[in-house]
Design a protein that fits this description.
Elements lengths: L2 H25 L2 E6 L7 E8 L3 E7 L2 E8 L7 E7 L3 E2 L3 H8 L11 E13 L2 E10 L2 E16 L5 E12 L15 E12 L1
Antiparallel strand pairs: 1-4, 1-11, 2-3, 2-11, 3-6, 4-5, 5-7, 7-8, 8-9, 9-10, 10-11
């Protein structure tokens, strides 16, 4: 094999290697995170007006989820969340029993609620909007979540974390909950405090 053919062969091998490396570079910016529920650094909370005089707060103690964050193009970021509806906790046993029953979440028939994002868009410094499908009682509706990026960086255990807080509100009747709590309690607000550990 003459010198020219050797040079052409080397060039072809180099081009193939460079082409193969392009997808790895393009996807290197996409980070995958598991929501840190075991460490107690994530919360799914809700609040609803009580007789227009005060707020009633509650949370779900059992949930899990993941999210991806694209540092090069954040619009590629996405979130999935699954909630055990029977883990509802409003700090009152009798009320919790009622909320888990047929008048509200009907957890025996619908043990899971979920959220899956469909779009993510930055709106300002550390703020964004997350759109997606929320499923409660087997009913799926689109919701819009206002998101604040809290921070990101290394943790003391050698990992890397990102944290966000999201808020949204929706009508209870949209998800088949029509129990009359009075005009001030027709909508519920949800607060999602999410901290993820990079995988």
């Amino acid at each position: 094999m003459n010198a020219l053919k050797i040079k052409m062969l080397r060039l072809a091998i180099w081009c193939l290697a460079a082409t193969a490396a392009i997808p790895a570079v393009a996807t290197a910016a996409v980070e995958r995170y598991v929501i840190d529920t075991e460490g107690g650094h994530a919360f799914v909370q809700f609040r609803v007006k009580h007789l227009a005089y005060s707020w009633l707060y509650g949370r779900f103690n059992d949930f899990s989820g993941t999210f991806t964050y694209d540092t090069e193009d954040t619009s590629n970021s996405a979130v999935e969340l699954n909630i055990n509806t029977a883990s509802l906790d409003s700090n009152h046993a009798e009320r919790d029993k009622h909320l888990r029953g047929k008048d509200f979440l009907d957890v025996d028939r619908f043990p899971r609620a979920s959220f899956k994002s469909t779009a993510y868009k930055e709106t300002g410094f550390n703020t964004s909007v997350l759109e997606g499908d929320l499923t409660v009682k087997g009913i799926t509706k689109p919701v819009r979540i206002e998101v604040q990026r809290i921070g990101n960086g290394p943790d003391p255990w050698g990992g890397y974390r990102r944290g966000f807080q999201g808020t949204t509100s929706f009508a209870l009747k949209d998800f088949g909950i029509d129990y009359d709590l009075g005009p001030a309690a027709r909508n519920v607000e949800m607060i999602l405090s999410i901290e993820g550990v990079r995988q």
